[in-house]
Hints:
The protein is α/β, with parallel strands linked by helices.
Amino acid sequence: MPTNISIVLERRPGGQLRVDDFRKVESPVPVIGDGEMLVEHRLFSMDAGFRNWMNEGSGDGYLAAMALDEPVMSLTLGVVVESRRPDFVAGDLFMGRLAWMRFSKAGPDDFVTRLPHSLRFPLSYYAGILGGTGMTAWFGVNDIAKPRGGDIAVVSAAAGAVGIVAGQLLKAAGAHVIGISGNAHKCDRLVREFGFDATINYREENLDDALARLCPYGMDIFFDNVGGRTLNSALHHLREFARVVLCGSVSTYESADGIPVPGPDNLFEMVTKRVLLKGFMYTDEGGRYPEAMAALEAGLTDGSLRNAEYVLKGIESAPQAFCDMLAGKNMGKTLVEL
């Protein structure tokens, strides 16, 4: 059996995450007991939300804070090597929340789900558009945004992994979709390749001015991945009975020294406009994964959905991939291929 390799969190990030906040560790391959299985990871999914749990005291009712000198928690995809669990056998493909390791053991309390043996799309899709990323977009759009034909929908971090899928789903449902990004090349691709009707480059135009120009009568849907000032601006441009999907808050994950990032200052307006603001986690909907995956596969098949990936190779590249994602160097889903 080869040596195991892990990437551990060496220190708490002080604001902006750095590659040297992590360290590579070699160790023996884990030995499994009853009710456990040994898995080999093939792909790591880079998800901005996990940056929050790298901070000191960041544990909440959903996940505990990541421990120092322990492998970095991550959504992963791989194959079962050995199983002493009744629900998995060697050779099964899985998607789960484990860690940056070549080999891990997974017990009954770990979040893992089996993938079909016969895959209709490339394996990487199941770590992105057909995995937690795509399901996050699908549940947010279908359960909260509930788009209707003619709705005006705005998506923040629109060139990111979830945003690029959410925008396409909203467009397929008949909405007029506007994406927010901070890169001119990404804005161009969102319109040219991914069907967005318009984009806002917040580095080149004041966001409030751009929203007033593109949504003169307000928006019906805001799918938010950013939080902070972006969310605050968007809330000033909502129509009555608008729906706000609270999916992520990437602007707050790297706030230095725990200083809060300014957020909404007009919540009473949400009352008078009868606005729905709702957060969610796709892991709450495990029983509906087949429904979501079938819908996403159908979109890829009929062309209403297109995939975008930013892939780095080798376990040692995981810290760089995560930092690249937070810095916005990716278009679509960021992955590490082992």
